[in-house]
TrEMBL record:
It comes from Spongospora subterranea. InterPro entries: CysJ-like_FAD-binding, FAD-bd_FR_type, Flavoprot_Pyr_Nucl_cyt_Rdtase, FNR_nucleotide-bd, NADPH_Cyt_P450_Rdtase_alpha, OxRdtase_FAD/NAD-bd, Riboflavin_synthase-like_b-brl. Keywords: FAD, Flavoprotein, Oxidoreductase. Its EC number is 1.6.2.4. GO terms for molecular function: flavin adenine dinucleotide binding; FMN binding; NADPH-hemoprotein reductase activity. Pfam families: FAD_binding_1 (PF00667), NAD_binding_1 (PF00175). The keyword Flavoprotein applies. Its cofactor is FAD. GO terms for cellular component: cytosol. It is an enzyme of class 1 (oxidoreductase). Residues 56-293 form the FAD-binding FR-type domain. This is NADPH--hemoprotein reductase.
């Protein structure tokens, strides 16, 4: 297809400029009215919502703990423990369920975006529908401030879809910028889009910095920009042991892109800056596929790397709770629980090591099998390698004892484990 259309254009005598100008016209659905009327405090923060299925569990909760888990964190590597208070919030959850976090864009990113768009972050506005009878949802609360709209409601840090480039081309004053943006939004600019936008993960902000002649109306920008989506995390605590708290294990997302650009993940960067006792989060609960076997006598095999330890910490906490609740002769015979965990160093990123070792001493966890990829400079050991060496144990657990096996971590790790 990529070769056919240029050939047809050449045969018909159609220039690239003609192709770039043959764009879809994006018409705004709203008009903006600026006013001095201030919206209610934190209206945007509290009005974040997801699907209707999650509405009943939306709560504003207090942050009570934010601590580093790595012994030797760096500017690029950090994994931290978050504890949220759900006391008096009527927010029950199951062990290893998922929690959705509504993130916030970085203040510096928002300041740069305001400069690119030529808008005052302090300005208050209301949106009005242009078309009578339309039911299109407003992209932000009404009324709203420019700063809150950009902080809480639009995705400024993800690569935009092709249609968004066509929208930008519509408002580009520079002919060369209009042509390139227009072509990248069409099939003819597929390679340019793939190489410079998709692969390089250019953000909305970076695109406006690359094409400075683009100045769309603010209301149209809000309408065309993708909404800022919640991020999902597996809960790292047991509701039996912590009925009024939710614990999360979060890895800071920082990656180096072309020309040394550092791309910061929106949610992890936001959560890293939160202050216990001062900040709150907007969250909701969703059920998970991670459920302990109904028969507590069933052996369990847990395989994880990095923050994939989260659901298994919840499992272990639940096992410890049952162990402590049983007294004297009532203490049940504990099933075999084996944890296979991959990290770099045993003394750096073996997350929750003290808790796991305590559970092992109590007999709740039968075996802890570490795969240390950087401990020995001559040999890299990954979790799939340890699983392969433990083949006889795994075969006995699965084939003879009907064990349940759970895997949590990166997609590549999951594929490697499946191939063992």
């Amino acid at each position: 297809k990529c070769r056919v259309w240029p050939a047809i254009n050449q045969f018909l005598g159609i220039s690239m400029a003609d192709v770039g100008s043959a764009l879809i016209v994006y018409e705004p659905s709203f008009r903006i009215i600026y006013s001095a009327e201030l919206p209610a405090p934190e209206v945007s923060f509290r009005n974040r919502r997801s699907s209707s299925a999650a509405l009943s569990t939306h709560r504003i909760v207090d942050l009570i703990e934010n601590r580093e888990l790595l012994k030797r964190p760096t500017e690029m590597l950090s994994t931290f423990h978050i504890a949220l208070s759900t006391a008096n919030r009527e927010l029950p959850y199951g062990t290893a369920h998922n929690v959705g976090i509504h993130p916030r864009n970085d203040y510096k990113v928002v300041a740069k975006m305001c400069k690119c768009l030529g808008v005052d972050p302090e300005q208050i506005f209301t949106l009005k529908r242009l078309k009578f009878g339309t039911s299109k949802r407003f992209p932000v609360p009404n009324p709203c401030s420019v700063r809150d709209a950009l902080l809480w409601h639009v995705d400024l840090m993800s690569p935009p879809r092709k249609a968004f480039l066509g929208f930008m081309a519509q408002y580009a004053a520079d002919p060369d910028e209009k042509l390139r943006l227009g072509n990248m939004s069409l099939l003819i600019g597929k390679d340019d889009y793939h190489e410079h936008i998709a692969v390089d993960k250019k953000t909305v902000l970076e695109l406006f910095e690359m094409f400075p002649s683009v100045h769309p109306p603010f209301e149209h920008f809000l309408e065309e920009c993708a909404p800022l989506q919640p991020r999902m995390f597996t809960i790292a605590s047991s509701a039996l042991q912590h009925p009024d708290q939710i614990h999360l294990t979060v890895a800071l997302s920082r990656t180096v892109k072309s020309a040394g650009r550092i791309h910061d993940g929106v949610c992890s960067t936001y959560m890293k800056t939160l202050r216990p006792g001062k900040d709150m989060l907007n969250i909701f609960i969703r059920k998970s596929l991670f459920n302990l076997p109904e028969k507590r006598s069933t052996p369990v095999i847990m395989v994880a790397t990095g923050t994939g330890i989260a659901p298994f910490r919840a499992f272990i906490q639940e096992g410890m709770w049952h162990y402590r609740e049983a007294k004297g002769d009532d203490k049940p015979k504990l099933p075999e629980w084996h944890l296979f965990f991959g990290c770099r160093y045993a003394d750096d990123d073996f997350l929750y090591a003290d808790e796991i070792r305590a559970a092992q001493e109590a007999g709740v966890v039968t075996g802890v099998h570490l795969a240390l990829s950087r401990q020995d400079p001559t040999t890299k050991v990954y979790v799939q390698d340890v699983l392969e060496k433990s083949g006889d144990l795994l075969w006995d657990l699965i084939d003879n004892k009907n064990a349940s096996m759970f895997i949590c971590g990166s997609v590549n790790m999951g594929k490697s484990v499946r191939d063992v």
